[in-house]
Fold:
Amino acid sequence: QVQLVQSGAEVKKPGASVKVSCKASGYTFTSYDINWVRQATGQGLEWMGWMNPNSGNTGYAQKFQGRVTMTRNTSISTAYMELSSLRSEDTAVYYCARECGSGTKNWFDPWGQGTLVTVSS
Amino acid sequence: QSVLTQPPSVSEAPRQRVTISCSGSSSNIGNNAVNWYQQLPGKAPKLLIYYDDLLPSGVSDRFSGSKSGTSASLAISGLQSEDEADYYCAAWDDSLNGSWVFGGGTKLTVL
Structure:
């Protein structure tokens, strides 16, 4: 079955960087964009950006421009999201999600199980 | 402050019907498809409705979606206790360089 499995929880100090992985299985990794969405505790969903695993092209939410980098390793069907200059407000669960559909009539399915990133001194 | 506006909470008794609204603008809901996600407590979001009103395989037909102009709605009929969850609407927004936008989420309580 189609599945996205993310790396484990991380604890980082302010100013550090974190890199979260998302391993895809059950489909052709390079055929679907991967998006990243985060959720602070008790809060809603916040979109961070997308990556095309075939071309490596990316698009980031304005809020994260300059701080986020999305990459991939096609040989192991894995996408990565790296967030730098971490601050306490970045404490959240980070999700990867496969983008299905075409054009702008797309949707996210499935989602990874989430990775908790805690930023604390 | 979310780009799409949802009520923070709704509640209804078992076996009843409830609707959750999602209000946007011409740059998102008015021009693009709306998707709905269900997030059970402590779990990752799950696709519930896509392309305004389509049900993914395996999703109960008690769930339905609709859209009119710059607003969308999710309806749940025959409410069950396992429907207690947070529900999010989402759409692509054409403004600036384009981005996905979400509603703030609606917590459904089955009384």
In short: The mean pLDDT of chain B is 96. Chain B touches chain A at residues 2, 31-33, 35, 37, 44-47, 50-51, 56, 88, 90, 92, 94, 96-105 (CB under 8 Å). Residues 86 and 107 of chain B are 4 Å apart (CA to CA).
